[in-house]
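Before going further, it is useful to explain how the protein records used in this thesis are read. An example of such a record is reproduced below.

***
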Amino acid sequence: MYQNNQADLGNFGKENRPRLALTVGDPAGIGPEVILKALAEPEISKKYDLTVVSNRDLLAEIYEKLNLTENLAALANPDRFSVIDVPLNEEIKSQIISGKGNAASGAASFAYMEYAIAQTLAGKFDGIVTGPIAKSAWKAAGYNYPGQTELLAEKSGVKRFGMLFVARSPHTNWTLRALLATTHIPLCQVADTLTPQLLTEKLDLLVECLKQDFGIEKGRIAIAGLNPHSGEQGQLGREEEDWLIPWLEQERQNRPQLQLDGPIPPDTMWVKPGQAWYGNSQIQNPADAYLALYHDQGLIPVKLMAFDRAVNTSIGLPFVRTSPDHGTAFDIAGKGIADATSMKAAIHLAAELVSQRLAAIKL
C-alpha cells in the first residue's frame, strides 16, 4: 500500500494553496538532494502544499548520507514534510547505488511517476514537479519512452503536447519562454518530421498556454527558420521557401490578434532575448515566446542564459507539470554539492501556473 506520512506537516494541506506532488526522479541521481534542499527553504515549504513521492526508507537513507558530507547546505528532514511512500521490493532497493543509474533506479523513478500521475488525475494534486530521470535507466527497466513528457501525455490521454522552457532573468526580471517544435529525435529526422500541421499544433499549444498560464492574449511570438540564414531564399535549403514561409503567412491571416515574427535566422533569433536577459538598454520589445524547430536550436541558448534556473514545462496536459532543466548528474550524486536553484524555480513556477488556472476558473 502507498502511505502518506502526515506527521507534523505544519502548514501543509491548508485551503487555497497549490497542491503539488514532487517526484524525486532517479534515486541514484541528484533529484532527492535538490528536493531536500528546496524544501529546506521556508518560502517554499511554508507557502505551498507539497508532497514528495518517493520510497520513504530510501529517501531517509539518502538524507542521512548527505548529512555526512562537508559544507552541506541545509536539508529538509523527511520526517518533517509530507511523503507518499511508494513501496519497492528489497531486491530493487538493494541495487540502487548513488551515482550509478541502472534498471533498479529506473524502475523506482518510473514507479514514482506513475503514482504521481494517477493521483493527480484523480484530483489529489493540482500539478506535478518532477525530478530528473535517466532515459537509459528507464529503458534498462523495460520502459521505452523518450522522456517523462511522453509518459505524462500517454497517461493523461492527450495527443497534443509540448515542451516549453521558462526562466526569469535575475538581472532584469524578464521572462524567457521557448517552445520546441520537435524534441527527442535524431537531428537527421528533424526536416522530415516538421510539417505545417505539426507547427500549427505547436503554435496552438503555445497560444493557449500564453493565455491560460501567463494571461497573455495578444502576444508576440518569434519563430525560427530551419536552415542557416533561414535558407537564404532557397540557396541553403528549400524548407523555408517550399512551406515554412507560406505556412507562416497563412497563420498571420488566421491569427490577426498575434504578432508572428519569422522565420528568423536561427543564429540571430536569440540576440534579442540574450539582450533582454542580461539587461542591454538598447533592446526593444522582445517576444513573449520563441518557437524553436528542434531540440538544440532551442536548448543551447536557453541553457547558456539560464542553465541554473530554467524550468521545463509540459503544455497541453490537463494539469500543471514542471521540472528543473537539468539531468540526473550521476557524477556528483551523493556529494552534497548539487545546485537546487532550478528545482526551486520549478516549484515556484508550478505554483504560479496552478494559481493562475484556479483564479481563471473562479472568474
User: Anything to note?
Assistant: The domain at 1-158+317-363 is CATH 3.40.718.10 (Isopropylmalate Dehydrogenase).
